[in-house]
Amino acid sequence: MQQLVILDCFTVEPSGLGVPPYLSTYVRNAWSALRRARPEADVRYVTIDDVRWCLAGGKPTVEPPQSDPFTYSTTVNRDAAIQLLRDAEIVVVIAGDAVPSVHLHAVNGSFEEISRALACARGRRYLLGPLSTYALAAPAEYAGLFDAVHTHTVTSDDLLLGSRHPAAYGRMQRERDSFTGLVEQMPWRPIAELELYRGCTRRKFCDFCNEPAKSPLVAFREADDVVAEAAELYAAGVRNMRLGQQTCFFSYRNRDEDAIRALLGGIRQRCPDLEVLHIDNADPLAVAAPVGLRIAKLVADYCTEGNCAPMGIESFDPAVIARNTLTCTPEILMRAVEHVNVAGAARGPGGLPMLLPGLNLIYGLPGETHGTHVANLRGLADIFDAGLLCHRTNLRLARAFPGTPLAALGALEPLPSAEQFPSWKADIDFTWDQPMKERVYPTGLRVPGLHSYFIGQGGTWWRRLGSYSIQIVERDAAVPRGTTGDLVVTGHAPRLIYGERVASAS
Question: What residues does the Elp3/MiaA/NifB-like radical SAM core domain cover (predicted)?
Fold first, then answer.
């Protein structure tokens, strides 16, 4: 029997996450394309963690009971990963970070690791995912590594040739294959990322954003198609889903309230026992509009608690906003945050708010001065002083993605954040993030339905699956991975909270 391999080195984009337990659109796309191209073949799903496991002699890189982020996401194929690569007629590599990312439990595959893994492969090698953009921008560096590159999608027809444009959604729908064989190779409970559309609905694009470079034209999926894919995942055993692989959930079908109701209602009808249904990414301009409040109420009504609508203000500094075509002002953001709070601040049966906003801030954009940080602190203080709730804040340094206006500027004069970012981040951690954690997760709050997922030197990390789920640390404990239980909040830090176990499910 022919052997085909998907080598998942994990992906991170502003509009989508492909780090386990997230099951990315890229992995499912590759699975369907390979199944259609070679229906008689045996398709195996292998992670970069499987490869690391084999190369380390079949053991973790840290001493148990500590969790090892380098081999955390091994599959049922971990002991045979190298042999599978050697025997495979085709290897599809899925990789690439479009934005910087750090994960407690995972380390994305590096260029060196991918090269080392592919040195074991004797068949044809193909690339899919954000790394393809870097490979095309620096062909000499990647010469000889891949036989063909796919920038957006792969189909059974263009698998061997490569592709530079995404396949039409109708074609993707016809190619889709049962996901049961894929999910069975994952020993974790996956949360499937679902895509609603490509491109950005704004008339002006932010200079740093990779989405217009990735998909310059907007193309929406039909709600029935999304619901059908959700049902196929559900049939494969997936009980956790996120509508996150797009720039703004609220802008689906140009903010069509009826289409969003049909989408969410259809998923709920076809997937009645979902444990998690969340969203990701929200344009504050859409959320601040009158229809944004109504859509937020739909999300709170149909989705599960602990949901997050992350919004990119990116900067509160008017000079940075104007210089980088950001379009969102502090006033618009305040209205958007208010809308989400009105719709979703009420707590669900598990103790968490149904839907809260998240905030994204980027340092290192052209026009930045020391005053930029002051403006950010003031803007966050205004939201806090208004008594509003916020789920999480993401701070990062800008990265020039190939094809964006920011990349076209080339080398810039060093900006203050190049030196000050760690201290500026600490300012926001302790003046905004920690006080907000204390407001959203007060001491004494009981949070049920958690599972232990990582053991570190400070204790055991607990969480629920979902969009940017809160991490609760049980100090000085080493609880086996996958244990379920309830914790009561006992303390707070900027990026996590502390808790004590009060009950465990069997």
Answer: 190-427
Q: For 50-139, where are the E strands, in sequence order?
A: 90-97, 124-128
Q: How far apart are CA 104 and CA 216, in angstroms?
A: 33
DSSP classification of residue 249: G
Domain endpoint, select from 187, 214, 241: 187
Say how far apart CA 422 and CA 179 lie, in whole Å.
Answer: 42
Query: pLDDT for 441-478, tens place per residue?
Result: 999 999 999 999 999 999 999 999 999 999 999 999 99
> Cβ(237)–Cβ(183) under 8 Å?
yes
Asked if 489 and 443 count as a contact pair (C-beta separation under 8 A), the reply is yes
* Residue 150 near residue 163, CB atoms below 8 Å: yes
Distance between CA atoms of residues 163 and 92, nearest Å: 13
Domain extent, residue 20, equals 1-187
- How far apart CA 323 and CA 305 sit, in angstroms, is 37
Residue 424 lies in a domain: no
Task: Name the residue type at position 386.
Answer: A
**Domain containing residue 171: CATH number:** 3.40.50
* DSSP helix/strand/coil, 141: helix
In a domain, 362, yes or no: no
CA angle 166, 171, 172 (to 5 degrees): 70
Instruction: Decide if 460 is inside a domain.
Output: yes
Give the sign of the dihedral formed by CA 134, CA 406, CA 10, CA 266.
negative
Give the up-direction half-sphere exposure of residue 69: CA atoms within 13 A in the CB hemisphere.
Answer: 11
Give the tens place of pLDDT for each residue, 359-405: 999 999 999 999 999 999 999 999 999 999 999 999 999 877 677 76
Instruction: Report the C-alpha gap between 405 and 476 in whole angstroms.
Output: 48
Chosen domain end from 138, 155, 187: 187
320 contacts 372 by C-beta, under 8 angstroms:
yes
Tell me, yes or no, if the pTM score tops 0.90. Answer: yes
AA identity, residue 409: L
Residue 72 and residue 422 in contact, taking contact as beta carbons nearer than 8 Å? no
Would you say the C-alpha torsion 382, 385, 390, 392 has a positive or negative sign? positive
Q: How many domains does the chain have?
A: 2
